[in-house]
Amino acid sequence: MEAEKRTTTICTVVAIDHTALSYTVCSFCERTLPENSIPSPSVTLCDHCNFTRNSSAVPHRVSTSNPSKRLFRVLMSVATDTKVFVVVVFDRAARVLFGCSAQDFIDFAKLHSFSGEIASKILEGEMLKVTLSKPKNGNAQHQRVVSVVPLKSGFRPVIDTLRELYEVRSDSSNIPCSR
Ligand SMILES: [Zn+2]
Questions:
Q1: Residue 109 is part of which domain span?
Q2: How many domains does the chain have?
Q3: pLDDT per position as a tens digit, 98-107
Q4: What is the C-alpha separation between 65 and 43, in angstroms, rounded?
Q5: pTM for the whole structure
Q6: Alpha carbon of 23 to ligand 1 centroid (Å)
Q7: How far is residue 41's CA from residue 173's CA, in Å, rounded to a whole number?
Q8: 135 domain-assigned
Q9: What is the CA(64)–ligand 1 centre distance, in A?
């Protein structure tokens, strides 16, 4: 079996799909959970391991009391010097850009509307050195970003900029983005 192909390239962020920055997985087996099962944390969430349904029967100790957790999965359109294409940034790489966990970002976004939109604006135009992986089994639609290194000196994670913006905003009525 051929190993997945990895390439490293310099690219610029063109756009980010801010409507779906993260997804929910079962805390226990880490399988993706359907989005519509999120609302009540006490409800059975995972059909794969029955974590919440029979949590007392699950032999493993689970370190977290929350049956689900959020991970980043960011669809990002990037431009190299030859082309523009869409990549998907999973949790570990996305944390470099956002500077926090997906759950932290969601908690912040709940209190501060437009966080997603602004986050995508913050990252637009950012120069990144990315390592891309193209799985051989054509299952995946987009190349995955395995690692990311922001090239701008003094790069600040999204959450830092957001916190600063919203602090500023609380002093004035100006919203720091175009609507
Ligand atoms: Zn599970």
A1: 5-22+73-171
A2: 1
A3: 999 999 999 9
A4: 13
A5: 0.78
A6: 14
A7: 35
A8: yes
A9: 13
